[in-house]
Write the structure tokens for this entry.
Amino acid sequence: MTTATLLQIPTGGFGGLLIPLALMFGIMYFMVILPQQRQRKKTQEMLSILKTGDKVITGSGIYGTISGIDGDSVIMKISSEPQVKIRIARAAIAQVETSEDAK
């Protein structure tokens, strides 16, 4: 054998590499990226429809009732005492309690 024949290694070509790579990207898109986009859209929708009187839970676990909305912040009543209110970022709200959650 000559050195020229030893250097010729058979390969599958560019298509042999491109198909599995595209398949892996497609699986990652449908299993990771698409569900994250749906969750982000659902959270943004929930935050945009907040109103005074909603019972909410923050990301850190504080339960309260919205007593005012000021742009990107929310004034939240956290006690039965009328003076106990805190101002939090609207994005810190993790969920709105439904009537079934409050029971």
